[in-house]
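Tokens for chain A. Residues wanted.
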């Protein structure tokens, strides 16, 4: 895959603007005081379907010919990508099929079906991708969650908004699953303002990018095991790995406990429910606090808010 350019991201913005929200960005005095710098939160939690994923999905579908769209679209996802594909398909009057792992939380299943998508359960990733091959032969179009230039360009539209809302930005912290979000945002930021530092964050048990960077080559995990379900990729793609090598300062790996502590802190203090895959950027910022001074302007990208409420119950009161 060729590298993504600023022009690709600007074209994506033209395509998706009628279909997605321009999400708010807020300065947080609480986080600024805690980290001794200036902290802003980009709230993709308030995006349609509750995560950034619709940006890339709409851009991809709208780039397809009518003939390619006609057979319907399919996703392999028990999370945000599935919801985004289901929502976009309904909005564009297309068929959608979501292949979901057995054990997917009921809230995701109900939401996908609420968007009128068909849900089919699969036992393993291998079974899912074997089914995708059959579906593609039958005319369905598979939407990969991150290894696709239009998907990445769509996610990069967030970077354009960040710069418009906080032109003084010096640092951006973004979570990494397969790396599509990071690649799009970092491309936009580093092209328009090269001095901006972009930091990646993963969680233990879902750290394929960190391991790949350390090895100097793509590492494929045998599986993922993290509370941050949305960071479930077992390997980056060639494109996202290359982007991480070229555009990131560093990838921080935080524990599940740190990610959950950040979920609780954001809910209690900012009144925002952020899923662990997004809240881990706060944990990453805490790890990086020595990098930030009073004159820095740090944006935390809170990528989504789809956290099943039953998973909040284990939290102990302060």
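Reply:
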């Amino acid at each position: 895959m060729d590298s993504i350019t600023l022009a690709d991201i600007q074209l994506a913005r033209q395509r998706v603007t009628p279909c997605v929200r321009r999400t708010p960005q807020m300065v947080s005095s609480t986080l600024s005081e805690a980290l001794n710098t200036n902290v802003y939160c980009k709230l993709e939690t308030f995006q349609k379907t509750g995560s950034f994923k619709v940006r890339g999905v709409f851009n991809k579908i709208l780039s397809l010919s009518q003939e390619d769209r006609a057979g319907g679209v399919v996703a392999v996802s028990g999370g945000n990508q599935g919801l985004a594909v289901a929502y976009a398909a309904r909005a564009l009057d297309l068929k959608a099929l979501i292949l979901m792992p057995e054990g997917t939380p009921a809230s995701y299943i109900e939401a996908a079906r609420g968007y009128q998508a068909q849900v089919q359960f699969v036992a393993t990733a291998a079974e899912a991708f074997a089914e995708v091959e059959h579906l593609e032969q039958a005319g369905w179009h598979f939407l990969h969650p991150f290894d696709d230039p239009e998907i990445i360009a769509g996610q990069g539209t967030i970077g354009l908004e960040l710069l418009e809302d906080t032109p003084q930005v010096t640092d951006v912290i973004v979570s990494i699953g397969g790396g599509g979000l990071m690649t799009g945002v970092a491309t936009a930021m580093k092209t328009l303002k090269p001095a901006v530092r972009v930091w990646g964050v993963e969680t233990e048990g879902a750290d394929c990018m960190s391991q790949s960077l350390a090895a100097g080559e793509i590492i494929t995990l045998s599986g993922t095991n993290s509370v941050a379900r949305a960071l479930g990729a077992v390997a980056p793609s060639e494109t996202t790995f290359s982007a991480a090598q070229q555009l990131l300062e560093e990838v921080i790996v935080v524990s599940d406990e740190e990610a959950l502590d950040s979920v609780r802190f954001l809910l209690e203090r900012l009144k925002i429910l952020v899923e662990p895959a997004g809240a881990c950027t706060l944990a990453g910022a805490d790890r990086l606090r020595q990098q930030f001074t009073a004159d820095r302007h740090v944006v935390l990208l809170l990528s989504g808010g789809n956290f099943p409420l039953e998973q909040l119950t284990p939290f102990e009161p302060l």
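The first strand starts at residue 25 and ends at 27. The chain has a mean pLDDT of 94.
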